[in-house]
Amino acid sequence: MTSRMRFILHVLILSLMARIPALAQDNVETTSRGLLIKFIRAQVELAATEQGAFRLSVANHTPEPVPTTFLANINFNTSTPWQKINEAGMVGIKSSGGELLMNPQSGEWMMKNAQGEVVIPPHGIGESIDSGKTVEVDLGWNTNTEIKVYGCGNGTDTLQQTKATTKVSNGKSVIPYYWSEAGYAVLAVATDDNRPAFWLAGTSGDYVRWMFPGDTADLYLMPAATLEDAARAYARLTGFAPVPPRWAFGYLQSRWGWKDPAYIEDTLHQFRQLKVPVDAFIFDFEWYTLKPDYELQNDGLTNFTDFYWNPHLFPTPAKQVADYKKQGVQFVGIRKPRLGNTASLAMMHSNHWDMVSAGEKYHLRDVNFKNPGFREWYIAQSADLLRAGVAGWWDDEGEGSFTTYYYWNLAESDGLARFNPHARLWTLNRAFSPGLQRFGAAVWSGDINGTWQVLRDTPTSLLNWSMAGMPYGTCDIGGFFKEPSPELLSRWMEAGVFFPVMRSHSEIKATPRFPWLYGTNALNAIRKAVELRYRLIPFYYSLAHETFSTGVPLMRPLVMEFPGDAKVADRSDEWMMGSSLLAAPVMQEGETRSVYFPAGDWYVFGTNQIIAGNQTIDVTAALDEIPVYVPAGTILPLGPVVQSTADLPGGPLEVQVYPGKDAEFTLVEDDGATKDYMNGAMRKTTFTWDNTARQLRWHQEGAYAGGDIFKKLNVVLFDRSGRIQKQGTLKRNGSVSF
Fold first, then answer.
1. d(Cα 519, Cα 393) in Å, to the nearest integer?
2. CA–CA separation, 215 vs 230, rounded Å?
């Protein structure tokens, strides 16, 4: 048989597989969850979930919801209110979110929102089911619009994306999710989370094809008119991100190459003497081993220490960590997803706790965190480290499988709950999969170069992660590789003020990203930027509570806040923090850049200077200046400059009012360290600005009254005639009139 004949035969076989709906039987059954529609070669379930989404499941057998790490605790046996409907030859289910419909003869399906508008147009369900290997599901698309979506992760250098081959790698997370401007979001779940689904645009342009490795396809469909609606719906499905510990909102200094105790103490002394605020030191390999494990053989070394302190750097670890904490600096240590000790490796292999036994060949020393037996052992080994005062973990190089970071964080979460049950988990990870945010995880964009282009690319990555369900993103400020100029490091630090997590780092051969090592001008600019970061902590911390309640991220693309503005559809060189700050840092050499202002009036931050919206202007910013703008009708709470979040409140709260519209903002305060806020242990102060009456009022709820709450406030009104300031006391109810 010639190669051409083999090709023709292959095409014929595929074409027979493709006609699943054409061989359909009219067989629709009602189940407790929805409708089961049986075709000759496929069975489809249309179901409503308790989170207000729909689930469309396709298999060559009776489909059951696929167990997955992606979703939060969903009880599929819970009856979600729905009703069976018949419409134009289709059957389907209707819930509060809309309608999911299918033709039981042709397999054509569609979805409507609660207003009855078609958001997924009719299209055949798919082309083939290769039993046990793959399932393909097609999703209809409006032929009048190009296939572009948001929220797939940072696999591209744009916000709008046209395809997504799912993967995790060094600083990359591409996930099986997107939001479409048609008015819906979708999350795909395959049989095995470590072989996730991916999608591509259909050849005719009128459909999206989802490819599912395995024998079952679950599509979770969420009617969502806007990106903000999608963020809320996606968080209801995959879980809400808890509020990080308050210190994690400060400046975090990471270093590969901490030399000895004197070096650590001198670095801390420099930060405090030069009055550059800092809240954590993050330690690379050297905190637990004399030498990195990269050159170890597969059987490791007999004297390698995986779960101990390097005595040359930490001769008295508990005492040292406690002393740093007294000075306002937390300890965060790196972790690797592998072992280096010979005896531990032998034990791991004998118990089949390695990745090779799990079917994922990455490295023979890599561990399988999915194995509950290994997680128990890992927790036990970590006990003394937690008791010594480790505040957080830096999880690196865990891309052996799509869910390594998930199960790794599960072990760390369970370990912390066992040895310090009230504390909040904080981890920093080099990639993520859906659901990781439930633990208290942050992510960083991997081993990047210290160049201007990488700086410009970084906001795109972090914004794509925000839309993909990971609200706490950061990078190696200054770049991991190469030597940034003083100007580049200064500008990168200024951009970092407006990242969810502000952290610098570099490889061992590079100059540490300590501000004083880059000259006086850079030091002054960086100090000023970090001081602004600390002033913004009451604002950011309140946004974190909003994220925990709603799923809406802190760092938002302009398209999320201004969805009707075509000029911001793919803009990522400026972004919003909450709804109150437009950050447009300089990310190129020199002191100028262009800034686009969406509709409305915009104040230059901290002034009464107003810029009209719907225009682009060139702005000039000296090395120690950051272009930042505030929309009219904003209440912005700022704290005093402190050297560590441990020093809060540190003085009065400054409540800035930018008039022009009525405004409201809720300041949230709690102990900043425990999970007690989940049980209501917090104080909420809701500020309301009446623009007509020119009056700021506030009302408090909650009984939290720790020593870190703000008791005094200065109210600053940026009136057109100038800056007006009045003082007050933060009692349960109050007001200030102008």
1. 31
2. 28
Q: For residue 319, is pLDDT > 90? A: yes
Q: Which of 238, 258, 284 is the last residue of a domain?
A: 238
What is the pairing mode between strands 502-504 and 251-255? parallel
Report yes or no on whether pTM surpasses 0.90.
Answer: yes
The per-residue pLDDT for range 649-659, each reduced to its tens digit, is 999 999 999 99
Backbone φ and ψ of 287, nearest 5°: -75, -25
Q: How many Å apart are CA 494 and CA 586, to the nearest integer?
A: 8
What single-letter DSSP state applies at residue 301? B
**Phi-psi domain of 291 (left: phi exceeds 0; alpha: psi -120 through 50; beta: other):** beta
Tell me, what amino acid is at 468?
A
- Answer whether residue 10 is part of any domain: no
- Residue pair 506/512 in contact by the 8 Å Cβ criterion: yes
For residues 55 and 198, membership in a common domain is answered with yes
Helix (H, G, I), strand (E, B) or coil at 410: helix
- Both 624 and 645 in a single domain? no
| CATH at residue 160 | 2.60.40.1760
Task: Tell me the pLDDT tens digit for each residue of 604-648.
Answer: 999 999 999 999 999 999 999 999 999 999 999 999 999 999 999
Q: Tokens in use for 159? A: 């916000």
Number of domains in the chain: 4
CA angle 702/704/707 to nearest 5° reads: 150
Judge residue 142's burial from the number of C-beta atoms within 10 Å of its C-beta, 0-12 exposed, 13-18 middle, 19 or more buried.
Answer: middle
For residue 48, being part of any structural domain is answered with yes
Residue-range definition of the domain harbouring residue 710:
634-737
Nearest-CA neighbor of 317 among 264, 277, 380? 264
Token couple for 254: 């990471």
